[in-house]
Amino acid sequence: MKKLISLAASFCAAGALFAHSDHDHESDRDGAATNGFPTVTIDVAEGQNPWTSLALNNDPANFQFAIITDNTTGGRPGVLEDAFKKLNWLQPEFVMSVGDLIQGYSEDRAQLKFEWDEFEGFVSKLEMPFFYVAGNHDYTNPVMAEVWKERFGASYYTFVYHDVLFVMLNSNDAKRPHAMTQPQVDWLAAELAKHPNPRWTLVFTHTPLWNFAEDRQSLWPQVDKLLEGRKHTVFAGHHHRYVKDVRNGRANYYTLATTGGSSQLRGPRFGEFDHVMWATMTDDGPILTNLVLEGILPEDIRTEKSEAMQQALINDDSLVVQPIIFDEDQFPGGRTELRFTNDTDLPVTLELEVVQTANVRFEGERHQTLLVPPNEVAISSYRFDAADLSFDSGQIAELRWKLSFDHAGETYDFASHEPINAIRTEPIPAATIAIDGDLTDWAALPYRYDADAWVYARNRVWHGRDDGDFRFGVTADDDYLYVGVEVTDNGRFADAHARNWAQDSVTIALDSRPANIRNITGRPDLNYTLVPGDEPNAARLLGENRLPEGSQWKVRTTATGYTAEIAVPVAYLSQQAGELWRDVRVNVMIADRDPGEDGRIGLRWQPEWGSVRAIPGSGTFRR
């Protein structure tokens, strides 16, 4: 009780901020004050004026507050702190919670002290009051209950603000999780009796016990009964998935998502996102919206200075992680490195963390902090070995990085992540191919479009392999590298005036430059884009003047689509490699547009180089 009295006193100290007053929106045309509302000083012309009204939306009886939700089950570091920082930007009048504030579930007082001290350290940075609600991670055994009482006093309580009754319940004070005691329900009945007719009642609890109302031992039906007949809204958490329910015929019950708690983060339609709920209290009830944390940004998120530094430190391939390229059937292990080039006149701090994503063994330091002097290069090397034979080819780890620097009294930081890939190369068989569009001289076309790789669709839906598909092969002799493609297309479309992606076409991308260039750059060295045509001489090679002298190509239509063949001079591949070429990177894409349709699709063997889904080193072939 002492804590509640002290809390009420702190409210009164804020003076008019917490005072209830009439809220009549009358206002004179010239903005004169009525009923004590602030005035608007503005010149009003006769006739029309460039505003809709001078009755400003500034009812002093209305107010705004925020609600945070779960931070548990392996809470993700930094999310809760980020939420509190952004709440200070938003400046609500106070912040509510729905519990599960610490990892908890412990009888170790030292551990509980550590976790509560950490959480209260976060809370101390808030510039407005914070109201605690107990969750099952915070309050499920006698030791946790004692610690709660020592730190916070009551585990269920109420307060009134602007004639709105706030009720904080403990959904875990019984001897079993997710259950209330009868004394708490009796207390609630008494509290509601003290406040029979507030303009609204807001209830905050952790577990949405209405989901378990069919449990014969559940006391939540009593809570529902007590709330009947009054305007009310209920907020909970626990499930880490957002959902809105309507109960008692008209009351909204909300289960919130997460503010750092475990989640697959598949997005709003799954109810999985990090957020704070923003509430504006009105006479008609709370107006609620979800503020996704990633969408709350400071006004100076990007400046001319930071743009220039980003260009110098990141965009110009200054920060590069090379893939591990191997030739064996199974990953034998290998070493990769991050190379960071600081081409500025400022020292840069680079923080690195390696997170494994496959069953491999990692050697080295998982966490590193490097101070990179101006105009210097930092290299960090990482060794991975196969843990078993289950890993084939792909991403083995993620390198998370953060770089920061001080400039003109301001601190700038950038954070992102780079995949660490182990890519198995594909062998190039030796053979000589006649470039005639007839694929019968190909021993095999073993590489086929992977439906999981990359689909681009614009105003069209890909209906499967009968709608558009391809397979291809790669071979070489002493003079040429050959690529042959067989395309399946149930409706061909060609337009002499359209770009390659707006008509049926196949693009073969190649790059034989050194690995440290071709594995990172977003643009291939060569693009052979071939367009089929049913009429004689209608087939075309786009951009032929940009291709190596001596290139050969042929496109031929078939009953099921079309074929394409190219021959690339080996001399050019060696010239680009800077030595006798050994390997080359290859990607194949088809664009498909059907007659009578404006939309189109694009299918790639590997994700587009340079795209957000790009796999560095993917599609590497070896001699």
From TrEMBL:
Signal peptide span:
1-19
Q: What is this protein called?
A: Sugar-binding protein
Biological process according to GO: carbohydrate catabolic process
**GO molecular function: any one?**
carbohydrate binding
Task: Supply the source organism for this entry.
Answer: Synoicihabitans lomoniglobus
- Gene3D superfamilies found in the cross-reference section: 2.60.40.1190, 3.60.21.10
Which residue ranges does the record assign to the Calcineurin-like phosphoesterase domain? 65-242
Q: Which UniProt keywords apply?
A: Signal
Q: Which residues form the Carbohydrate-binding domain?
A: 466-596
Where on the tree of life does the source sit, at the highest rank?
Answer: Bacteria
Which Pfam family, giving just one, matches this sequence? CBM9_1
